[in-house]
Design brief:
- There is one protein chain.
- The chain is α/β, with parallel strands linked by helices and 355 residues long.
- Helix content is 44%, strand content 21%.
- The protein has two domains: 231 residues, 3-Layer(aba) Sandwich (Rossmann fold); 114 residues, 3-Layer(aba) Sandwich (Udp-n-acetylmuramoylalanyl-d-glutamate--2,6- Diaminopimelate Ligase, Chain: A, domain 1).
- The strands form five sheets. It has a six-stranded parallel sheet with strand order 2-7-1-8-9-10, with helices on both faces. It has a five-stranded mixed sheet with strand order 12-17-16-15-14, with helices on both faces. The chain has a two-stranded parallel sheet with strand order 3-6.
- It comes from Pseudodesulfovibrio senegalensis.
- This is Phosphotransacetylase family protein.
- Homohexamer.
């Protein structure tokens, strides 16, 4: 039965979004879709069976109820690593192949999700290149834009996978980089025999996070306007500059959390009056009563954290780039982005699917 491996150049590139988007699209077209994530790095136990948290979530979205131990036969726990590094693990790809065969039986197409990058798991021979060759299935690689795209990596992957690689998806591409992708990068990749199956534009909603979740991830606590913890943060701005300069930047950045020292009441007040989704006060300093009162009146939550502004900004950058795709609105948006920007007909043809 046809199988499609979805891998990526790095972790947090959008594999779950692509897998769910393709799965839902295939199902909408009437195909019986199977799913597998051979290697999992987020151990979770379900009814006494070890599985992967992301894999369980994707199954749920696709309406599947498969044995978690078959879906993810290799779950990376600390005990697993100890055995693998001491050479006491072998035959893992055979186990993956056996489970793939069982899961793909009677399916029109089975989506196989990667974990980490294409080389993750090399230490125990469960990396994507090894698994793809063992299963003999087609592969799509996602490359997420981070300052630039990893065209060298993609060229190396074509050499490593040959005809198994049917194309790449360029994800989270900002508007200012679209011309370069269309005029330079896509033609270059095509000259190397690499099809660009889709270019997914950057969508602020996909990187957004609710204030309540943000507070938890930052290790802080909400100290006001608790009832508005579901407000959405799409980006952030650091309020270390003079108020006049801050106001200029602030007007250009909608839905931005403002990271500012707990003692900078001038910047805090401007941010509150400008309707930011939340304030993140650093240095474990409580705001004054005027700020607290305005926060409650304007229903703008304040998160208080212990760390300094620089450390919080670094953490925030990581959170916004890696926040999980778990909200229903994000799943729908992600599915729409995939359906509207990936060459689905080409995939059907390459996988030999006909309905």
């Amino acid at each position: 039965m046809p199988g499609l491996y979805i891998g990526s150049t790095t972790g947090y590139s959008g594999k779950n979004m692509i897998v769910m988007g393709l799965g839902l699209k295939f199902q909408k077209e009437g195909y019986n879709v199977g799913y597998m994530k051979p290697v999992g790095a987020m151990p979770v136990e379900v009814d006494g069976k070890l599985g992967d948290d992301d894999a369980l979530f994707v199954q749920d979205v696709l309406g599947l109820d498969q044995d978690p131990e078959k879906v993810t036969p290799v779950v990376v726990t600390q005990d697993f690593k100890v055995k693998a590094f001491s050479g006491k693990m072998d035959g893992l790809t055979d186990t993956i192949a056996e489970n793939y065969e069982a899961l793909s039986k009677d399916r029109d197409v089975t989506l196989v999700a990667g974990s980490g990058s294409m080389y993750s798991g090399k230490y125990c021979d469960t990396d994507a290149v090894t698994v793809v060759k063992r299963l003999g299935i087609k592969t799509v690689i996602i490359d997420r834009f981070e300052k630039e795209l990893k065209y060298d990596y993609l060229a190396v992957m074509k050499e490593a996978l040959g005809d198994n690689l049917i194309g790449v998806v360029l994800n989270d591409v900002p508007p200012h980089f679209m011309d370069e992708v269309n005029q330079l990068l896509a033609p270059f990749l095509k000259s190397r025999g690499i099809n660009v199956l889709g270019v997914i534009p950057r969508d602020p909603l996909m990187g957004a996070i609710k204030v309540g979740d943000l507070a938890e991830r930052l290790g802080g606590k909400i100290i006001s306007a608790h009832n508005k913890a579901d407000r959405v943060v799409e980006s952030f701005l650091i309020g270390t500059m003079q108020v006049e300069n801050f106001m200029t930047h602030f007007r250009k950045k909608k839905n931005s959390a403002i990271i500012v020292g707990g003692d900078r009441s001038d910047v805090q007040l401007v941010a509150l009056e400008g309707d930011c989704p939340c304030l993140v006060l650093t240095g474990n300093l409580y705001p004054n009563d005027i700020i607290l009162t305005r926060s409650e009146v304007l229903e703008t939550p304040i998160i208080m954290v212990r760390e300094d502004t620089y450390s919080v900004a670094k953490k925030m950058d990581s959170i916004l780039s890696r926040h999980k795709l778990r909200d229903a609105i994000k799943i729908k948006q992600g599915a729409d982005l995939v359906a509207n920007n990936i060459d689905f007909k080409f995939l059907e043809k390459e996988l030999g699917l006909k309905k």
